[in-house]
Every structure is written in C-alpha cells, then in structure tokens.
Amino acid sequence: MTGISGPTRHLRGLLAGAAAGAAGCTVLDAVGYLDMVIRGRGASTTPEVTVARLSETLHVRIPGDEDARQNRVAGLGPLTGMAAGVGMGALLGLALSCGWRPGNAVLTATATTGALIGTNGPMTVLRVTDPRTWSRSDWVADLVPHVAYALVTVAVVRGLEPGPPDRTGAISTGVRECGAALRRTLRS
C-alpha cells in the first residue's frame, strides 16, 4: 500500500481483510449448505451448543423465556462463525498492510488454519467436540468449506490490494497448489 501513511494503510488493510473474510464466510456457508443438499445431512448444532456452554462457563445468562433463549442461541451460533471468518480476514489484511508478503499458497494455508482454529478451537476447549475422534469424512466435511473460505478470502484481499491486478496467475497457482495438497491429504 504504497503512498499511504501507516495508520491509514493499516485501517485500509483491516477493512479490506474484513470484507474479504465476509466474502469467504458466504462461500463457506454455501459449501456447507450444498453438502447438506448432496448428502441429505442435517445442520450442525455444535455452534449453538458452544454458545450455550460458553454462556454457562462464563456465568452470562442469555435473556428471555425458554423459547426466546433458544432463538437467541440459534442466532448467536452462526454469528460466532461469521465473527471468526471476518476476524481472520481482518487479521490477514492487517498483516499484509504491515508488510507481510507470503505467496498465495502460504496465505491460503494461513487463512484455512486460522478459520479452523477460530471455529473449532472454542468447541474443542469447551468439550463440545473432539477432533481427535473425527473420522476421515468428518475431517473432509470440515476442511472443504474452510479451504473454500480461504481461497475466496485470499482472492478478495489480493484483489483489494492497491496497485496493478495480479496478472502472474499467482492466485490460480495457489488454488491449484491447495487443491493438490488437499487431494494428497485425502489419499493418505
């Protein structure tokens, strides 16, 4: 972000990253819903269980009668995932504005890992789930939407960077490299 002062450059990077993370969240949700359609599976309740468990752990009561409380928890669950995705994108944008210049494969791996930790970390800490017990299909069902999130987040944050657009094919190279790594993981 040449020619822009430090605080302005960082704010711009933060906001560009947040927008990129929001776009990534949209794709993550779409991939998850497509999985539900294709496999006929139900929606995951782990986000809602996590919110309820966090409320209990922190001794913060979610207000309302039982129906209102359940509805609030049902709304808060997905919002926590959005916050993780937008937050991860904002951090990536900020890091880029501070001069971090990884290749797209590293940036995509970072976004994937950050999103996985941001969503699954609280669920694991609160003992809502235990990734050590997941089957291969459980891992694939979790990884694929997060990789889709990362690919879109990286493409958008790169597209929002000032300067000439990427004409080197680095984004498509990053997508191919991530796809190859995912295929290797699934075969092992």
Explain the overall architecture.
This protein is mostly helical and 188 residues long. Helices cover 76% and strands 0% of the residues. The chain is built from 6 helices and no strands. α3 (66-97) runs antiparallel to α4 (104-125) and α5 runs antiparallel to α6 (170-187). It is globular. The model has no long low-confidence stretch (mean pLDDT 89).
Helices, by number, come to: 6
Straight-line N-to-C gap:
41 Å
Quaternary state of this entry equals: single chain
Can you summarize the main beta sheet?
none
Provide the β-strand percentage band: under 5%
In terms of per-residue confidence, which ranges show pLDDT below 50 for 5 or more consecutive residues? none
Shape call: globular
Tell me the helix content: over 70%
Q: How many beta-strand segments? A: 0
Mean pLDDT: 89
Q: Please tell me how large the radius of gyration is.
A: 18 Å
